[in-house]
Amino acid sequence: EISLGLVGSEMCIETEISDTGCGIEKEDLPHIFERFYHGKNSSSDSVGIGLALSKEILSKQNACVTVESEVGKGSTFTVKFYKSII
Fold it and tell me: What is the CA radius of gyration of the chain?
């Protein structure tokens, strides 16, 4: 199951994407945004660039992405799009 949430503030728009999947191992969490990294639960056909590429694209859009996860309960990715101050 996947759920989406959206919250706006004066500083940013925050999007949460949560799932009830297998979760990410605690020791993998600090590395999942590194290019070519394969966590313990990654599929055999994974190239290891998807999350690294996503983070790079988001950074070019004045945004950041973080993740919280618990094995057996799922993961929540939070993307913050910061508003430009003119």
Answer: 14
